[in-house]
Structures are given as C-alpha cells and as structure tokens.
Amino acid sequence: MSPADIQTGRYYSNGAYGRTWGVRLVLEMSPDPESGRDTLTFKGLAGTCRRRAGVCSLEEFARWAKHEVQLNENSWQRVGYFEADADAGSPGLGG
Predict the structure, then answer these.
(1) Among 46, 44, 40, which residue's Cα sits nearest to residue 71?
(2) pLDDT digit string (tens) for 25-68?
(3) What CA–CA distance (Å, rounded) separates 67 from 39?
(4) Cα(86)–Cα(95) distance, integer angstroms
(5) Higher model confidence: residue 19 or residue 95?
(6) What's the pTM value of the predicted model, to 2 decimals?
(7) Which of 17, 25, 13, 9 is nearest to 69 (CA)?
(8) Is the dihedral of CA 62, 64, 27, 5 positive or negative?
(9) Vertex 57 angle, CA 56 and 63, to 5°
(10) CA distance 92 to 54
(11) Neighbours of 12 (CB within 10 A)
(12) Band of pLDDT at residue 81, cut at 50, 70 and 90
C-alpha cells in the first residue's frame, strides 16, 4: 500500500491469515521533528494487534498494511471488495 493511501480515522489490515492477521486504526499522523519523516500513531483492534497501541513511520505502516478494511456486522472486510464484484456482474451481489 502506498503511504499516500493511509488516512487518519481509517482501518487497515495486513492481509495475513491465521495467527498473524491484524487490524489497526490510524489515530494520528504528524511529522517527526527529529527525522523530518511522517510518524503514525495506531491502535490495534483485532488479531495480533488487539489492545495494543504503537507508533511507527508512515512508510513502515504502509509496508505492513495490505488494504483498507471496514467492520461489517461481526467481520472485517476489504473496502471496495464487494463493490468491485457487483460492478463485474457477479451473481448474487447486485450485478
């Protein structure tokens, strides 16, 4: 994922399977005065990240994040995943 795609207040997943899967919420992004690089603060919401907070560079977070996700009732789903299927005319998804 590109650092330009990461936004405050959005949820991201590493796209992993099993025990290494995780979802994080981006809380804040700000420039680090010492390094001049953008710093990101996040909160882990699901998987291995759950109940943990952290700080890393924007570039590091972008390498970890594979896609944006949103909570749909009780499961995390990729943003735009179902819309892409519906646009392609998949049966049962409004296409």
Answers:
(1) 46
(2) 999 999 877 877 899 999 999 998 888 999 999 999 999 999 99
(3) 19
(4) 5
(5) 19
(6) 0.80
(7) 13
(8) positive
(9) 95
(10) 40
(11) 24
(12) low
The 3-class secondary structure across the chain, one letter per residue, is CCHHHCCCCCEEECCCCHHHCEEEEEEEEEECCCCCCEEEEEEEEEECCCCCEEEEEHHHHHHHCCEEEEEECCEEEECCHHHHHHHCCCCCCCC
- Which residue carries 């420039």 as its tokens? 31
Domain chopping of the chain, boundaries: 3-87
Sheet holding 75-78, edge to edge: 53-57, 38-47, 22-31, 11-13, 67-72, 75-78
Spatial distance between the Cα atoms of 73 and 81, rounded to a whole number of angstroms = 16
Largest CA distance in the chain: 53
Tokens of 83: 């819309």
